[in-house]
């Protein structure tokens, strides 16, 4: 596993190393993994040049933040309802809701575009944020975790006069931190790297997200791989930070929700 891990890391190490090299040193053989004369001009050109990289970064951060927060709220509420509330047709509704996962996302693009165009959301960030707030997988993940909480704990809270929302907010939700962090990491990773929806729904360059901006950046600087590597490292850094901070909770959440294996 250690050898496999090193093999997986090699392309990323090369990317980071290349971002500190001049173009002439990029493809020298043997590879200089540690640049002899490291430079920062590539990052200065990416962030301070004519390209609106900082704006794309901000757009991605804003969209990802609202999507992550919204998906955690809706998924935890729905997961709690499907796991702990008894109402008629609960299991059938959950099964039908879960069955929507087999529908390819591309099938929904045309009707979604027509709907958003009629309500005036096309070429706004809400056209990208709103579909990501409601996630079937997030609901399934939270339901699996809420199901592990003993019903006796909820019955004791009811005996003390707690309502359903108070039980959800003060008792169940604090116990689901690993599942919430798992959903946070998965949602953050997906929407930070999302390319298809921003490409379809966003038309103005001022609204472009980082993946769209990187694509345009590659088109413009296709021959300058040092700049492309610097831009790619900058785009990858938030993902590395988020996973590094929440990795322990992520592993615990996957194991506790019954998804391991």
Automatic annotation (TrEMBL):
Supply the PROSITE patterns for this chain: ABC_TM1
Q: What is this protein called?
A: ABC transporter permease subunit
Asked whether the keyword Transmembrane is assigned, the reply is yes
Q: Name one Pfam family in it.
A: BPD_transp_1
Organism expressing this protein natively:
Paenibacillus plantarum
Q: Which InterPro entries match?
A: MetI-like, MetI-like_sf
The family classification in the record reads: Belongs to the binding-protein-dependent transport system permease family.
Q: Give the membrane topology, semicolon-separated if more than one.
A: Multi-pass membrane protein
Transmembrane feature ranges: 63-82, 94-114, 126-146, 167-192, 225-246
């Amino acid at each position: 596993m250690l050898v496999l891990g090193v093999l997986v890391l090699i392309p990323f190490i090369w990317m980071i190393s290349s971002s500190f090299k001049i173009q002439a040193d990029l493809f020298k053989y043997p590879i200089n993994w540690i640049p002899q004369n490291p430079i920062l001009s590539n990052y200065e050109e990416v962030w301070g040049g004519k390209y609106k990289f900082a704006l794309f970064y901000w757009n991605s951060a804003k969209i990802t933040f609202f999507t992550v927060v919204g998906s955690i709220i809706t998924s935890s509420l729905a997961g709690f309802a499907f796991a702990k509330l008894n109402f008629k047709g609960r299991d059938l509704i959950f099964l039908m809701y879960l069955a929507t996962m087999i529908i390819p996302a591309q099938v929904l693009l045309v009707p979604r575009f027509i709907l958003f165009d009629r309500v005036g959301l096309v070429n706004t960030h809400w056209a990208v944020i709103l579909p990501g707030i409601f996630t079937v997988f997030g609901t399934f993940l939270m339901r699996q975790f809420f199901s592990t909480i003993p019903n006796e704990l909820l019955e004791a809270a009811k005996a003390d006069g707690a309502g359903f929302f108070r039980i959800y907010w003060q008792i169940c939700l604090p116990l689901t931190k690993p599942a919430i962090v798992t959903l946070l990491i998965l949602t953050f990773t997906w929407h930070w790297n999302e390319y298809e929806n921003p490409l379809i729904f966003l038309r103005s360059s001022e609204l472009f997200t980082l993946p769209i901006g990187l694509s345009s950046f590659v088109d413009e600087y296709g021959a300058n791989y040092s700049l492309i590597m610097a831009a790619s490292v900058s785009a990858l850094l938030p993902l590395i930070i988020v996973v590094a901070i929440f990795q322990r909770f992520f592993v615990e959440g996957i194991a506790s929700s019954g998804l391991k294996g």
